[in-house]
Amino acid sequence: MKTLVVFYSLGGYTKYISEILAKELEADILELKTKNVYPQSGFKKFFFGGKSVIFKEEPELTNEKIDLKPYENIIIGTPVWAGKYAAPFNTFIKQYSFEGKNVAVFACHIGGGADKCLRLIKKALKNNHFIGQTDFVNPLMKNKEKNLRKAINWARSLTF
Ligand SMILES: Cc1cc2nc3c(=O)[nH]c(=O)nc-3n(C[C@H](O)[C@H](O)[C@H](O)COP(=O)(O)O)c2cc1C
């Protein structure tokens, strides 16, 4: 069974967890990249990222088209943006079908909105089989080791 970890990460937290999961699950990994890069610091980071989710933007991705057919299992990782999933997933979800896949989702955040974000992303993905969800609070900043163990344990708990 092939597994793919797909993530978007502006500040590196979701990337950190995604890499742990991919290693533990011996999965392929895909980092979504946008053509127009979001500002990475200060007010602009929150303004442009926030605007992007509020207006349901579909930022152009620079990733090559990927064939999801060989993957039975897909893990999706997103930062929480204004209580939602990051806008690059608007584009990704529109481009790809998740039908018949085993899907697990996780979110990184600073303390609010993860449940709503995960609920929304699950709603946006259609006709698949959800096998798990979890979240991490800024995992590189706080409790890095604890979050590493949490990610490994979560990966091991997923029954595909
Ligand atoms: C535009 C924007 C909106 C955010 N909104 C929230 C939020 O609603 N709740 C929250 O807990 N964190 C929020 N955050 C913080 C990020 O979710 C958090 O720092 C996350 O760990 C970043 O992951 P990354 O480093 O992979 O980008 C927001 C960050 C950005 C840039």
Give a written overview of the molecule.
The mean pLDDT is 96. Helix content is 37%, strand content 25%. Strands 1, 2, 3, 4, 5 and 6 form a 6-stranded mixed sheet that branches. It has 160 residues and is of the alpha/beta class. Helix 4 (114-124) links the parallel strand 5 and strand 6. The protein is built from 5 helices and 6 strands. Flavin mononucleotide binds at residues 9-15, 45-46, 49-50, 79-83, 108-113, 138.
Give me the count of strands: 6
Structural class, by secondary structure, is alpha/beta
Tally of alpha and pi helices: 5
What is the average per-residue confidence, as pLDDT, rounded to a whole number? Answer: 96
- CA-to-CA gap between the ends? 9 Å
Helix content: 25-40%
User: Would you identify the CATH H-level superfamily?
Assistant: Flavodoxin domain
General form: globular
Bound molecules: flavin mononucleotide
Order of helices and strands: EHEHEEHEHEH
| CATH arch. level architecture | 3-Layer(aba) Sandwich
Q: Radius of gyration over alpha carbons?
A: 15 Å
For the largest beta-sheet, the strand count, sense and barrel status come to: 6 strands, mixed
Low-confidence stretches: none
Range of strand content: 25-35%
CATH topology: Rossmann fold
Q: How many discrete structural domains?
A: 1
**CATH class, anyone?**
Alpha Beta
What is the secondary structure topology, with strand pairs?
Blueprint: E1 2-7, H1 13-25, E2 28-31, H2 42-54, E3 71-81, E4 84-85, H3 88-95, E5 102-109, H4 114-124, E6 129-137, H5 144-157
Parallel strand pairs: 1-2, 1-3, 3-5, 5-6
Antiparallel strand pairs: 3-4
Helix pairs in contact: 1-5
The protein binds flavin mononucleotide.
